[in-house]
């Protein structure tokens, strides 16, 4: 039986490993399996591979390779940045206050909430209807005891890109450590840490066609941080544990590749994203773009579609082979609108119809056109079956929107 056609439109969730990346990784599972801490030839070989990966990452970040720490992913990088700076401040009695935003990834938000249990105070800045944080809000939130500002580079649900360079200047002028979660930005936005004026920056390899379970934390030299994982002296005593050598090799190659091809990838993604946005806005009534219309990731097309429920929508799309996601987190059978959609002020009934489509290298215009046709048909069917079908028909009639 022929395999069902599948169209993957969830690159914000994860990406496939590129063949060149896999090829670079493979020998480190087999003939070059050494532990980088061993002194004999196998170990030296593995250690050289780590150094090579560190240099590749540093070249993209425009930093010293010694400022690059490999971790187990974006989640660990965020945890380490936030808890590391906070606990260092506690140890040295330097301050107790952290500033972040209401739309961060849970790796950041839950790290902050954890710290609150120990008496740290956290300001969760609001964002506007596009998901943008305001510079004057950041400035106004700064207190004499502020030790850390953490603002994501680009949002994972709605794709909005935050003014990192400007916040970086603010933080640096005041001597406050500044962290950015750049997990979704990688591959699309400039990661030059000097330009961005960040002290800490998190990356996750599986978002830029590298392997899962590997991340990077950039820590600017001199940043006050207390490292969180004790054990051996790996990662220059900053993150104990035998290194994931194949994963780290893959991370270096994937990031280098992503930045070598960045202009082309951005152009390709933007073209498909705009085709999706334009098609959905034209063909599906009562569909609203979420996130900023211009200051958004080139691969992110996210919406709220009224009179449909995300769960039914995603299942129907899956039946047609289309892989997409929503901005909702399923908790014990009930679908709660995400904290991001709540923060940008989307009313609950509308937030229940969220849809996130994130394109990638291998998607084609033909796939987008197929998706648009399927989406139009599925949304129409779900609306007819919806408990709000009558309300939908009345709204459609009052707007003079005809049946497609
Ligand atoms: N931060 C953001 C913005 C993300 O989108 C993600 C993953 O979706 C993470 C952090 C966590 O990264 P990882 O999956 O590598 O733990």
Task: Write up this protein.
The chain is of the alpha/beta class and 404 residues long. Helix 1 packs antiparallel against helix 9 (245-260), helix 2 (41-61) runs parallel beside helix 9 and helix 11 (310-319) packs across helix 14. It has 15 helices and 14 strands. The strands form 4 sheets. It has a 7-stranded mixed β-sheet, sandwiched between helices. It has helices at residues 19-25, 41-61, 74-91, 106-116, 135-141, 164-173, 193-196, 234-237, 245-260, 262-283, 310-319, 339-343, 348-351, 365-385, 389-399; strands at residues 7-8, 68-71, 97-101, 121-125, 146-150, 177-181, 200-204, 215-219, 287-289, 300-305, 322-323, 328-331, 334-337, 354-358. Pyridoxal-5'-phosphate binds next to helix 3.
The fraction of residues in strands falls at 5-15%
Strand order in space, largest sheet: 2-8-7-6-5-3-4
* Number of alpha- plus pi-helical segments: 15
Structural class comes to alpha/beta
CA distance, first residue to last residue: 34 Å
| Rg (C-alpha, Å) | 22 Å
> Which spans have pLDDT < 50 for at least 5 consecutive residues?
none
Strand tally, please? 14
Q: Based on Cα principal axes, name the global outline.
A: globular
